[in-house]
Amino acid sequence: MKNKLISITIITGCIFFLLSGCKKQDNVGTPPAPVKNLKAKAGYGEVIFTWDAVSKIPADSANFLYTAISYKDSTGQVYEYKFSRYTDTAVISGLINKPYTFTVKTVGPHGAITEVTTVSVTPDLPVYITIAQTLQIAASIGAARVSWINNTGKTVVVNAAYTDGTGNVVSQSFTSSQVNGVGYVSGLSGSSPVKITATVSDESRIKSDPVVVTITPLAEIKLPKNSWTIAAFSDQEAGGEGAVNGYATAAIDDNIGTFWHSSWNEAQPPYPHWISINLGQAATISRVGLVNRQNATSGQTEIQLMGSADGTVWTDLGTYSFQQKNAEQFFAVTPQRWQYIKVVLTKGPDYYGFLAEVDLFGAM
């Protein structure tokens, strides 16, 4: 009788255990529907996933909580990212240029898991490495010119640093998503070699290996005019001011007693009036000096400066106020190499404008 009682107890315990196990399994709920139309595309140090959002199908949505994407790094560390039922796009970043196998699964509200999908993708080189490979560091007027090419469409931070004469590290950062990026590390001596160290970092602040170049900053000089010519002009006073004055060439003859004047005799065109100068060869321009027609007070009150490598495509260098006075006026511009400079007289109290001389400062 005692043995029979023990047997019944054991059987009852087994049944209870089995029932409990079944109940626990039932508690995870119905497995949700797997993601549909899953696609994975390589990006710069990232993989972009897209799929049809499960939440758009009410019957599937009731059993769906989130989508999970996971992968292992080179050390075997597993990373998992969870995305809401309303999401149909995910970006996994911080990756390097090597093959990765991703597992994608959907999870229900009680823990049920759908069948796992695997995807293998090799990301492109990360943004910070791609752009760091294009870094160029060159000497400029009292500065170092740091340039790079960014065809990724991503925003990056380029940091350039040097050690000054007192041993302090001085750095400047340039944040940009432009295709042709440029930054200037200024405040450098024009005669001493200096080591410039530049790095690129992306939005996740991962940084490239440094690019190190030693440069000797250029000293600013007044550029000689022996090869200058007038490339073009909007208008000039041809004859009404005499044999020399009025013509555009009077603005580059190194004589402040002569002057270019906009047309007034046969025609009276309104502002703007402009002249463009061909330097004969490219030079680094850091400042423009303009001398007004001497003892004149009714000319332009604003000017614009432009630069060009070919005389066709022009870059705006800035718009400045201009005073009607005899002394030369100086306008600093970002040091860049140009072969053509355009001076535009943009407005004034009357329809006409004039200039005695154009001077350029920089380095050959």
Integer-rounded radius of gyration: 35 Å
Low-confidence stretches: 1-25
Q: What percentage of the residues does DSSP assign to strands (E)?
A: over 45%
> Helicity range of the residues?
under 10%
Straight-line N-to-C gap: 114 Å
SS field, number of helical segments: 3
Described by the principal axes of the CA atoms, the overall outline is elongated
Estimated structural class: mainly beta
DSSP strand tally: 23
Mean pLDDT across all residues, rounded?
A: 89
Order of helices and strands: HEEHEEEEEHEEEEEEEEEEEEEEEE
Largest sheet: 7 strands, antiparallel
Write the topology of this structure.
Layout: H1 2-27, E1 36-43, E2 46-52, H2 58-61, E3 66-72, E4 78-84, E5 89-93, E6 100-107, E7 117-121, H3 127-132, E8 136-140, E9 143-149, E10 156-163, E11 169-176, E12 180-186, E13 194-201, E14 211-215, E15 221-222, E16 229-233, E17 260-261, E18 273-291, E19 302-308, E20 314-321, E21 329-347, E22 354-355, E23 357-363
What does this protein structure show overall?
It is elongated, with a radius of gyration of 35 Å. It starts with a helix and ends with a strand. It has helices at residues 2-27, 58-61, 127-132; strands spanning 36-43, 46-52, 66-72, 78-84, 89-93, 100-107, 117-121, 136-140, 143-149, 156-163, 169-176, 180-186, 194-201, 211-215, 221-222, 229-233, 260-261, 273-291, 302-308, 314-321, 329-347, 354-355, 357-363. The model is unreliable at 1-25 (pLDDT under 50). With 364 residues, it is mainly beta. Helix content is 10%, strand content 46%. Strands 15, 16, 18, 19, 20, 21 and 23 form a seven-stranded antiparallel beta sheet that branches. The longest helix is centred in the N-terminal third of the chain and has 26 residues, at 2-27. Strand 8 (136-140) and strand 9 (143-149) form a beta hairpin.
